[in-house]
Design brief:
The protein is an alpha+beta fold and 1111 residues long. 39% of the residues lie in helices and 20% in strands. Among the domains are: 87-123, no CATH class; 199-234 and 241-435, Isoleucyl-tRNA Synthetase, domain 2 (Alpha-Beta Complex); 515-573, no CATH class; 694-855, Isoleucyl-tRNA Synthetase, Domain 1 (Orthogonal Bundle), CATH 1.10.730; 869-936; 939-1003, Signal recognition particle alu RNA binding heterodimer, srp9/1 (2-Layer Sandwich); 1025-1110, Class I aminoacyl-tRNA synthetases (RS) (hypothetical protein PF0899 fold, 2-Layer Sandwich). The structure holds one RNA strand of 76 nucleotides. ATP binds at residue 655. It holds the Pfam family DUF5915.
Amino acid sequence: MFPTYDQLNLPEVDKQILEFWEKHDVFNRSIEERDVENSFVFYEGPPSANGMPGIHHVMARTIKDIFCRYQTLTGKRVERKGGWDTHGLPIELKVESELGITKEDIGTKISVDDYNKACKETVMRFKGVWDDITKKMGYWVDLENPYVTYEKEYMESVWWLLKQIYDKGLMYKGYTIQPYSPAAGTGLSSHELNMPGAYQDVSDTTVVAMFKTKKEAASSWLFSLPVMAPPVEDEDGGAAAGAMGSQDSNEVHIIAWTTTPWTLPSNTALTVGPKIEYVKVRTKNQYTGEANDVVLAKELVSKWFGGHNQPTIEAISEPFPGEKLVGISYEQLLEGPSPTDGDAFRVIPGNFVTTDAGTGIVHTAPSFGQDDMAVGKANGIGSLTLVDKQGKFTDDAGQFAGRYVKDYKNDPDYKDVNVDIAIHLKTVGLAFNVAKYNHSYPHCWRTDKPVLYYPLDSWFIKASAVKERMSALNDTINWQPESTGTGRFGKWLENLNDWNLSRSRYWGIPLPIWRSECGTEEVCIGSIAELQTAIDLANKELGLDQSVPKDLHRPYIDEVVLFQNGKKLVRELDLIDVWFDSGSMPYAQWHYPFENKDKFDRVFPADFIAEGVDQTRGWFYTLHAIGTMVFDSVAYKNVVSNGLVLDKNGKKMSKRLGNAVDPFETIDTYGADATRWYMISNANPWDNLKFNEEGIQEVRRVFFGTLHNTYSFLALYANIDNYDPADSANSLKWKDYPEIDRWILSRLNTLTKEVTALYEAYDATPACRAIENFVNAELSNWYVRQCRRRFWKGEMTTDKRAAYNTLYGCLLQVARLMSPVAPFYAEQLYQNLKGAAAGASNVEGAMANSVHLDILPGVDESQIDKDLETRMSYAQRISSLTLSLRKADNLRVRQPLQKILVPATDADFQNHVTAVADIIKSETNIKEVEFLTDGDFLKKSLKPNFRVLGKKVGKRMKDVAALIGANADAVIKGIESAGEATLSLDGEDLILTAEDVLIATEDIPGWKVASDGEITVALDVTVTPELAKEGLARELVNRIQNIRKDLDFEVTDRIRVRLQGSSAVEEAATAFKAYISTEVLADSLVLDGDVDGEALELPGEETATLAVSRV
RNA sequence: UCCGACGUAGCAUAACGGUUAAUGCACUCGCCUGAUACGCGAGCGAUUAUUGGUUCGAAUCCAUUCGUCGGGACCA
């Protein structure tokens, strides 16, 4: 028996199938039953379980699931180890907020040990919820044995990888400028800086400081550079040059703007744009009134001079390029030390300089800016770091020593040192301008104090040294979409910077590097065994009693002291960037190389990975970088990066806006399959998805509803007929299948071919759409509709068996094809179909079948018949045209009509249509299809085929089109009689063949016609009395069927009918008694002058009263 | 500010540089139903975001501006 259902309930299907999968261990079997040697390798990017899963996770995981299930369906073994990302900043922050502590408290109010314990507990807090959504959405991944990045084995593999990189000379320790929060005592990641609210509008004291140039060989030209009075606009609006009044400068000051005056004591250079034009301006200092010659960018002169409360220009020089200033030395602005690590106090070039703000000259303090650092280094400039990590000036900072550069302590008596610096500069005549300035500046999101950029020691991976290799390997990766690989990822690789690996934090994998205090001795540990050996040596040399800590996290590992070449080594306190953790998963998930060495060859690299596009510079990169550096290999061969899931208005989902979609609610309401199908079929995964519940409803109704009804149709009649797909009586020869069966089977095989190719290409969206189209338009709406009668008429004939076999086979294959995307419903459908076969009547046996254990049968090319597909499309189009003609004349379909006329311009077309004429006749309720072959009788139209002809004639296309239009009749005649026509264009012969033009019949004189492209149909609208009678008979059938339905009769019930009606009705009933009786399963149909039944109105003002009863 | 993606009817999506920009949903009218929460026919609805260019021909290629989103940089 085929199970039947009242209505489709997808959430209920989910429940039943989940239970089934669990009971029969289907997931494991789908892996274990496949050959190890035939593996498809998938890597699961580890989510962090410290937050709730969102609908976007359902999206990302659906993509992963689809291709893994598809590969399983083709017979591959697809192991899917789950994983958890457990380290990192978000976890630290969560712990800190829950414990009510800050980073500063770690080690004082709370021990590092306890802190890490809290992190470990927090990180898996939502594991249960994650496991739940994973299960409910039907994502198959091994949750029993996941890799966890905080586990010792995982950490050991990470150490090993790092050591490989270290041994290749790809690691170094360096100094970089990083965002740093003195108030919190920690460096900040860019992630923290980008948190909402991090950038705040503040009003800062800004200073334009004057740097006094030294008069020497390099600068003498500047002192003697002539200035002249500024142009004065004359009455005509033109400019008149002022009189020459130049005299050499006594002093020249280069002026530079800063919003952070506290960096001025640490100034070591001034940066100019080499191509930017600068001028020397003679003016008076507005604070001291002294004569003053200053240098700034020409474009910015008007910004600082001539306005309200601004100095006036007394004279100005011709512009000169910035590169002339390069090399000029100046006096240190504020007294203090000179740098020991390079030159200082001279003008250097930098391409980052703009004339958007300030003076076009950048005050450069390499310790406090990334650009400053870079440009300083490039020009041999040293640095001064006159601010300590608490955010106060060091003892070297002269009169400002000991003062906080910002109010980090919430000191009620805090006096802004920036203001004092400004006042001081005014006093000594080195301030050109002091003003308040509103701008947005990053703040530490937790302490709400301004961040400062500070030089911090870091460990780097020299990724830039292998960027060519990374690019080359990247070229072999199949990116979906391609543009992410070549563009976002590829371009980024080309301009790759070194990877800043270290993080000054507590909860993460410690850097396995130990160093002597002087930095001359250094060791990188690559395994626990190595650590053991090193510890043994240190114990011996230093007389200690250390052992390898049970937990490799801080603080235990920090206590380990090593020994090398007579020196004591202590661990570098930093942790490894958590991105390195996740990039290590191909190896660390198997504890490679300490275990699973054999297995590793089989599971590296991955055939397929998928994540959100935001992982491009995250996981996609770290996998690629480690794979390249350690194994000189890609880590993955195919990668799908999906876009964002937005709300239905295209806004980002966020808890704050309340527009976040709860994945549990969605799946509970609509079922996992409708949700998955919607997300994949609606838009390509890499385009952003505007998530709209109405879309899911549509999918549920239109696709799943139709499919379910198609199945129910089969089930209804198959159960009546006891159809058994496994019965040998049903095994038929190909010749037993009629045209329509062959057609749908041809389409089915074509579909299989298309869908398979699309899945192979990691392109699921068109695959879904193709399946949808097949189910809706072809299987349900055409095949089943055409074949209804075959299922319910009479007893089991060969034709009926063929219909059952065909529909059954289509549904079974659809179940397989859709199973990667809609694993639940596909499973139910498959089991219902398989379970109905004899021999599967034992329920356990039937249920043990699973579509996910099946192997997709290959395409049967012999069943693909393109010619047949063409024929059927003619049938559909002609039917559609005929129905449209009926509509125009208000001739309802139940009214039979005599014939349609179809002009046939060639024999091929006529043969094609003849083959499907029966289908057209039954679909449109007409009796004959007649062909018109008399060419002269038809009116034809001619259009050039632009695509073909355009290639041939190129730019003369327009003329050719006009020419063809003017000679339409001749061309048609020529092509129809001789196969070609010759036109003359500019004295040249132009030969047109049949493919160069499109000929269509447009009209049949004297008939009402409709046309669609090259097909034209005319309908004979004459209703003869005989036809009218038949029409009435069909009306009666329709009414009686409705009554049967209203009375809830079974479709097999026999009935008796008594009828009373107008004379036309009674005549029709008499004439078509046999027909009516067969149609409605009536044992008797009698005319009765006194019927007590339902009174009905029929078309043409006819009436009838009907009484129907069961036999 | 830089880099990238995207912008087609009320909504969601199509359209190897080629004829009148297609399909589904929604809406209106009609029809069909012995499977259907289906379907069929007709209608409604688009300056293909903008401006310019290349081309015989542009939704498609190039450039521009605007908008949405993402990634990065910077705020001296």
